[in-house]
Amino acid sequence: MGTISIRHATPKDSERLATIQADSWKSAYKKIVPKNILESISIQNWREEWMQKLANPGLNMLVLVASINKNIVAFCSAGKSRDADTSKHTGELYRIYVNPKTTHRGIGSLLMEHALKRLNKKGYRTAILWVLSSNTPARKFYEHRGWKMDGKTKTHFWKEFSPHQTRYTIALQPHIWSSIKYKLPNATQMIKYLLHHMKVP
After folding, report:
1. Would the pLDDT of 191 be above 70?
2. Which of 119, 126, 139, 193 has a 20 to 30 A CA-CA distance from 175?
3. φ/ψ of residue 72, rounded to 5
4. Parallel, antiparallel, or unpaired: how do β-strands 164-171 and 148-155 relate?
5. Please, which residues bridge with residue 79 across strands?
6. What domains can you pick out in the chain, each with its CATH number?
7. What dihedral angle (degrees, nearest 10) is formed by the CA atoms of 131, 122, 79, 64?
8. Closest CA relative to residue 91, chosen from 54, 71, 118, 65
9. pLDDT digits 0-9 by tens, 146-159
10. Nearest Cα to 134, choosing from 166, 112, 88?
11. Distance, CA of 154 to CA of 165 (rounded, Å)
């Protein structure tokens, strides 16, 4: 596998994003979502939706793509929490999709890590996400990476399909600590780093 690169999505990526989203749905949800709904998925409609979103300069949403040898293999989107019961410091991971042919290679984990770091830099202190309650592989993926159920559930009514969803949450660590972890090998350098970057009375 080549080097994985992460960047912001552009309108030119719309076709690829729609294709990955459709392929992911058909692969991950084949035992969850009714067959007729999966067969009715329109890549063209999703392409147009992504084109409109990514072409909007006022879009208040982070959309990142992961590429291998310049070929997009995954993407995610995140931003402010859409739930009324969360604080203004709560972000949300809206979606993350990986090309079924490139799963289990750490791409999704890397993409999610980048998204959460960017949310933290924007001032968010926690993040939430919603996952289909019956999607066991996805739930295990998130739980293995530190996400915890917060007790909130809901039922989303979509066409004749009404899936039950479970909400997860995770604390976002201040990015300064990530910087320290990767740059500083011992306590002495950590103290010097803090004294240099913080105002100490």
Report:
1. no
2. 139
3. -65, 125
4. antiparallel
5. 61, 92
6. 4-124+126-171 (3.40.630.30), 174-201 (no CATH)
7. -90
8. 118
9. 999 999 999 988 76
10. 166
11. 5
